[in-house]
Amino acid sequence: MRHVVIVGGGAAGMLAAIAASGRENHVELFEKNEKLGKKIYITGKGRCNVTNASDMETVMQNVVTNGKFLYSAFYGFTNEDIMALLEKAGCPLKTERGNRVFPVSDKSSDVIAALTRELNRTGVKVRLRTGVKELLLEKENSGGEERTRCVGVALEDGRRVHADAVIVATGGLSYASTGSTGDGYRFAADAGLKVTELSPALVPFTAKEDWVPKLQGLSLRNVNVTICHGKKVLYEEFGEMLFTHYGVSGPAILSGSSVVMKQLKKHGELTLCIDLKPALSEKQLDARILRDFEEAKNKQFKNALGGLYPSKLIPIIIERSGISPEKKVNEISREERERLVHVTKKMQLTINGIRDYNEAIITQGGVSVKEINPATMEAKKAAGLYFAGEVLDLDALTGGYNLQIAWSTGHAAGQAAGE
Description:
elongated, 5-stranded parallel sheet, 6-stranded antiparallel barrel, alpha+beta
């Protein structure tokens, strides 16, 4: 029987505790908040996108940073495994567009309730409102080599808890209100581990153009977005996006932030192109515009665009097309129509930054995976110390992939620590 301590009661921490609880181990989970799973509660707009039901190879392809490291963890605890665990614990699931998996109830609280039932069933001792101040580290001599061993944790209230293994699952820096304040990076550094550069990820962009705030609140569905540096395409995605008072957001944009972050830091600005009508070629779009114009030939240009664009977008389209809003539709030249087609297929704006951690879904960067055993999640330099979830230098696109990283690494750490 081993005494295993888990620091952090989010997705990775709860899964680690459940996995460690076999063999009648004494498992304690310390969570500084008043309840478990605070970040799970707000994921997927409160619906909780549990995982992605694609095959694990596809899941792997959607990991942005250090995907190969996850091979062992992903196949040791797959998307099917987490789905089976939750359903067995009383949280029925459904699969939606893009293979995204949600609770049937659309309530993230049901996912947390199912995991809590599983923690209770497996006898995990959950200590809420209990912050961990630091790791208890000792030097030991192993085969003539000096190495560090983690022998427990010191709590913020002054108590010391000794353990055979400690799993750090404290999350990153995103959504600090949920308790993600970067403690895990400090713990890693104290144990002599390298922490890579941190930045917000899956985060909205700021835009340079002054017309962007005028579109605040406008959501565009089924558009194609491309992010480029010069002629080089860095990212392309079809889906939904949203204009905000500072720039752009929405699913298609958030995934782009994780992919182009380093390029944006390097160059300062990148170009975002929006194809408002990706289902139509330029020729087909021109024919469609001609049909609309035929039906409205005696109207002014500004009053003939309602069938093509959302009303909020029309003044911007007119301005960018360079066509006089008062001009009669039957007087618009072929060249002007071409400009309208171009603006519709390639609406350009300049992205010049990102929002901060308060708006980021996850953190990019973290405890270097070069310092971690991929099969067990144990630190190579510190015996008995394990890391799981967002605290590691691992991140993926939106669609349930980041939670799968948390489940899989948590399970790997818990299983290894419990043995």
